[in-house]
Amino acid sequence: xxxxxNKFAVQLNQYYLEKVIPRKNSIYKAVRDVSKVxxxxxxxxxxxxxxxxxxLNEINGRFEGLTVKSQTEFE
Length: 75
Description:
The protein is an alpha+beta fold. The protein has a domain at 23-74. The strands form 2 sheets. It has a two-stranded antiparallel ribbon. A two-stranded antiparallel sheet has the order 3-4. The chain contains 1 helix and 4 strands.
């Protein structure tokens, strides 16, 4: 029989595996998809207007200047 703290640790681990990891992966995938589209749009604008400089930069796997507010809302 598990002590209460072990039961809690098992439940916490189960919640993390079932809820947190899939949500984290779906947000990561959504950010990747959005960043691809935004990068293509910025590149096209840059081609049409040479003075425009793209400001979406990926640094260490993160996009500088991109804030994720929720799974479907970015800023």
